[in-house]
Write a structure and sequence with these properties.
InterPro entries: Cupin_2, QDO-like, RmlC-like_jellyroll, RmlC_Cupin_sf. The chain has a single domain, classed as Sandwich (Jelly Rolls). It is about 10% helix and about 35% strand. The longest helix is centred in the C-terminal third of the chain and has 6 residues.
Length: about 180
Amino acid sequence: MTMEFATPYRTRSHLPPEPGRPYFVEKGMGDRAHLFGDLITIYAGGEQTENTFNFFTCEGPKGPIIPAHLHAGTYEVFYVTQGAVRLFVEDLEGAQQEKLLTAGDFGFVPKNCPHAYRIERHHSQIVGVAAGPGGTFERFFESLGTPTDEHGLPATPYVPAPERFGTVPQRYDVRFLPDHEWHP
């Protein structure tokens, strides 16, 4: 059994609102948000880790590419636990790579490297970890998306209004690159 807390982001959360407190979260019971066709579940974030890292899962159906973006001060890990996810990454010299990741595969994106991903199979899941001097960005998902108590994918994809993308860099270490092109 997990306890419920109130946080600055939610009236009910299974994550403690301050660091230095051990806790456990049952499967799927982290703070959840829908963004595009995906379900994001946060298990640890800035409040719990003194902004040193976050830990979350992203579950989604096969779908379009997630918009290109970068994190100026944050390193990001993609670990696929089920399904298949295509990760697109550009290094600091402009060389692009793409790789199909399947269950058990790992992808690493350094800070300042443009990247995007596309879920290639229904019922895919990514375990994500982000860390670095830029802090954590996990609350981006519910800020741009919509918080939910549901455990499944959204019945209708949640696509934010275009003007909302412009508010993200001021609050989180996420900069969208709307004109970025991938050349496989």
